[in-house]
Amino acid sequence: MTDTLTPVLSDIWDADRSWTLATYREHGGYRALARARELAPADLVELVKASGLRGRGGAGFPTGLKWSFLPPPDGGPRYLVVNADESEPGTCKDVPVMLANPHVLIEGVAITSAAIGCEHAFIYLRGEVVHVYRRLLAAVREAEEAGLLQGLRITVHAGAGAYICGEETALLDSLEGRRGQPRLKPPFPAVAGLYARPTVVNNVESIASVPGIVLGGAEWFTGLGTPKSAGHGLFSLSGHVRRPGQYEAPLGITLRELLELAGGIREGHRLKFWTPGGSSTPILTDAHLDIPLDYEGVAGAGSMLGTRALQIFDETVSVVRAVSRWIDFYKHESCGKCTPCREGTYWLQQVMHRLEEGRGTPEDIRTLEDVAGNILGRSFCALGDAAATPVQSGLEHFREEFEAGCHTPARDLFPYEASALATAGTASARGGREVTA
Q: Which SUPFAM superfamilies does the UniProt record give (predicted)?
């Protein structure tokens, strides 16, 4: 596996005013849309199917296959909904795409809409990222005024910031003005989605990858990545690395290779554990440095590729403390619709807090295992699984730290200042921090 980066979505991020239509067109923008309009919708679907593009939002379902699930046209509307509700702790790839180059997403929306027969597309965005919302609105307006959308209507909708709305059916309920809670499936969105009409729901990066496939062809895209995980993707490195950021590379690259590109772990420290796809994916350790970061490779190691949010933690970090913070998040974000998640996350939070404070008991650890096991696979949607997996994988790899929580606080075993990326310095007039990593 080569360690060569493949800047496709990130290719013009360093260009002057990269978010504008003028800059995007200077770099070949909207040529793919012109080419797509020369093809029949069915041919566009087959092209994306042949490319092997898999959903970049986490599940990895084949994108073209998802499009093909729509029933035959019946004269009524059908919709495309772009899931831009990036909420997973550690995940930060879609917002940079929309901020630095919103037109690659809009071009992808236009091509996808042509492929599925959609006349009104929606981009559902987290309302907190107001600057991105405004940039998307401006980009849609630019494309409309330039006559590029040819009657396609694109609505950019700002959600209220609920993690559960990252689940596609909860997103659809929110978009319709209801409380964001997952729907019972079937029917699936392809049959009865937005406003009970056939709907395709895809992630930002998935749709933004379509113009490159139309221009480069399916063979170009399958030439990147691995046989079952084709193409390029954004890998978001955060935490204890010397140069955190976005690294666009072929799927199948390893964490060892990415760490080399990122300058390695901060000086004087070593890798302890990491997440391959955000906090909802089972944690891995330094024993997994060389697994291919593709869907099959990561699954074979007992985790999930997810959103490729690589959170890197060195030996100064308490696993118990990290898992406890994640459980705080999932408990807060549980929509309360189903009992395993609503009640289970409450109990996980209570036990994790006791272990973090050194007040746990051996019975608490057995309770953790029991509760996590009763949440996993029994919840209405994947949020419950997201809460259970870090607990289970934490116990699998670092059980001794959980057992230490029966007598010693995590802050004593792993002092906060040891894992901090900044220390008191002479920084700013308001008592700022001096970065030491």
A: Nqo1 FMN-binding domain-like (SSF142019), Nqo1 middle domain-like (SSF142984), Nqo1C-terminal domain-like (SSF140490)
